[in-house]
Amino acid sequence: MAIGRKIVVMGSMPKRDAELLGAAAERYGFELSATLRLAGGVLSEGGEYPAGVISYLPCGRDKISRFFAAQHIDFVDDVPFYQCVGEGAVPAYIYDFPVNGVFVSPLSESAAASLALSIVRSSAALSKRKALEMRLVSGRKQKDSLAVIGMELCYENDMPALLGHILKVNREAVCADAGCVYVRDRMVDNRLCGTLRFMLCQSDSFEGGETAGAALKVNTDTLAGCAVYTGQFIEVDDMERIRPDAPFKADRSFVCPPGYHCKSVLTMPLINTEDEAVGVLQLINRKLERGITLTSAEQVRAHVYPFSTDDIGVVRFLARYAALSIDRISLYNAGA
After folding, report:
1. Which of 84, 178, 230, 231 is most buried (most C-beta within 10 Å)?
2. Of the spans 19-28, 36-45, 182-191, which averages the highest pLDDT?
3. 8 A C-beta contact, residue 49 and residue 78
4. Are 267 and 227 in contact (CB under 8 A)?
């Protein structure tokens, strides 16, 4: 259940306290309310919990106990509760309940401000916690999904089908408009060579691209060659802004047809269990939406963004499964 912007008051609040607390709450975009009621035993309104509860009910063990007994565990954990106590020492049994604080009435202006600020801070902390929980849950689901995809790659036994699947799932995972795969050449004895063979290209915005079979050297002249040469991924936010002294000077057109503009590029080496690069995956033009096609430089400038840290983590995770699968099929074909 969501947390609203109302601070509910229970019991009879003195007029002066209401004025001070109301003004303090309003400064932070909250409002006092006496309209929330027990709905099915839970204090709520319109599907929302209040931001906090300020109780002027008689401070008795039985009343406080019945109130908390009626609430859902989420309410007790998420909604701060403040109880008005009489003059003198705070009753010892207060510490037996999830009470966030106590106060005495009438309130001073500073006490009212402190009470409102405490609720505001609790609400902000709760929002951050909920956002983090959602990210963790989302992260777990994504990891489970990626693991399933990785296992699917491991069961593919046809090289062209495998490469197409590798490229498709990676492009979909990070919303890349285009991408290509190179596989490293092997000698007769299956040792890896110093050349990369272009195998496949995909895009939402064009068909075709460079003819399969074209070769690149494993050196720093190109992004793909440099990634394999160093064993490190290379992420470029904008190809037009690469430093003049950067390597891969020969790499400006990639495998894309004339007229297609490459802006953000992620080049990931495919590293096997022997720490050898058996290929390279290149993803081009990270978009926010899959349905967008990029047919002009203006569209690229408007809709293409750099690959994020999360994107890189996803591709790196899938790249390991891809490398293992490529290695397995290559070794099988060599022995056939």
Report:
1. 178
2. 19-28
3. yes
4. yes
**Rounded Cα distance, 97 and 282, in Å:** 58
> Per-residue b/e over 108-121, b at no fewer than 16 CB within 10 Å?
eeebbbebbebbbe
Cα–Cα distance for residue pair 316/99, rounded to 1 Å: 47
Every domain of the chain and the residues it spans: 2-132, 156-335
Average pLDDT for 297-318: 90
Enter the CATH code of domain 156-335: 3.30.450.40
Specify the pTM.
0.57
Show Cβ contacts of residue 290 under 8 Å, excluding neighbours closer than 6 positions: 172, 175, 204
Q: Which two three-digit tokens encode residue 111?
A: 């006490």
> Which CATH homologous superfamily contains domain 2-132?
Response regulator (3.40.50.2300)
Dihedral angle computed from the Cα positions of residues 221, 225, 227 and 228, in that order, rounded to the nearest 10 degrees: -140
**Angle (CA) 252 219 205, round 5°:** 30
d(CA 174, CA 146): 12
Name the β-bridge partners of 281: 181, 268
